[in-house]
């Protein structure tokens, strides 16, 4: 018997919700069922909600900043769950991980410099590079027997040939669901250290790792890696707090931290969102039990989804995820163009998924679906998908 009811369906419409209330503005039918953006249709821990109510009742929402007690809660969380103890003075609070990535790009590279990513990957990485007038260099992941791997020879070759200064690591990887092993991350770090490449490690999905797999914090592998790392974490995915805009960035290298914070201040950002700070502290302090029960529920959703696809949509191949609550689905067996697949999903299935192409050309033929919702919602979406593709 679980303490939390993750099956409860909560109406999110008419709440200025990006996931549900902006379908028409983004070219979808008003009644589309959304599984695109990575936020959960699940309320956060009661302890977080209680804290927000308490702070709201205080009635004053003035400038707020980070005190040592917040850092202490974070340090305890990462030490307990990930055997990682960042330095006390390494914490920087930002309004989001994407904001932090853009800040890192601007502070550690110049216009025209090369920044490396591994597509198919979370599409804001590409935007952070291109919109800041840097050169995007791609070390494409290799799909082999239903499993994505890193081409390390190409990784180093691209760094050397393009004089890459910055690498944006997605760990666990969105959208392909890989939880990179200690050995894989050590190979990445060794190459980056050798060629003086700073690693921006987006580890926002670090808590969503399936049984048998372990998330390794890149900066925890060696002290030398911590010296070239910007570790990006947040309660936004873990506790479904994205709208409260708070992320925890750890930079141990003094020079890198100074350059990062200088650029952050130049952008006009200083103190964090007050309610975001209070909610994050409550989540990291008291949300562990909620998270453990949620992980069990998400695994059940995954197993049901796998069974449904095998029985009802056998041409849709699920890439077995090791982490995240996002599933990478291969529709290429239908032999249809991406445009046609998107049309069927959008107009016939009445679903809003993330099209594979937005993660890079390597995502052609794929769709990403968010499974972090009540099973009844997910099942409804899968049934609509089945009906739409039945004639094929």
Structural summary, described in words:
Strands 2-10-9-8-7-3-4 form a seven-stranded mixed beta sheet, with helices on both faces. The chain has helices at 18-21, 46-58, 68-82, 97-108, 124-130, 152-162, 182-194, 223-226, 235-238, 254-266, 274-286, 288-312, 338-348, 375-389; strands at 33-34, 91-94, 114-117, 135-138, 142-144, 147-149, 166-170, 198-202, 229-233, 247-251, 317-318, 326-330, 351-352, 354-355, 366-370. Helices cover 41% and strands 14% of the residues. It has 14 helices and 15 strands. With 392 residues, the protein is of the alpha/beta class. β7, α7 and β8 form a beta-alpha-beta unit. The protein folds into two domains: 18-44 and 288-389, Aspartate Aminotransferase, domain 1 (Alpha-Beta Complex), CATH 3.90.1150.10; 49-286, Aspartate Aminotransferase, domain 2, CATH 3.40.640.10. The radius of gyration is 21 Å and the shape is globular. α3 (68-82) packs parallel to α11 and α12 packs parallel to α14. The longest helix is centred in the last third of the chain and has 25 residues, at 288-312.
Q: Largest sheet, if any?
A: 7 strands, mixed
State the helix count: 14
Question: Ends: how far apart?
Answer: 41 Å
Count of folded domains:
2
Average predicted confidence as pLDDT: 97
Class inferred from helices and paired strands:
alpha/beta
Radius of gyration: 21 Å
Order of helix and strand elements from N to C terminus: HEHHEHEHEEEHEHEHEHEHHHEEHEEEH
β-strand amount: 5-15%
Strand order of the largest sheet: 2-10-9-8-7-3-4
CATH class of the largest domain: Alpha Beta
CATH superfamily of the largest domain: Type I PLP-dependent aspartate aminotransferase-like (Major domain)
**Uncertain regions spanning at least 5 consecutive residues:** none
Silhouette? globular
Helicity level:
40-55%
Strand count: 15
Architecture of the largest domain in CATH? Answer: 3-Layer(aba) Sandwich
Find the CATH topology of the largest domain: Aspartate Aminotransferase, domain 2
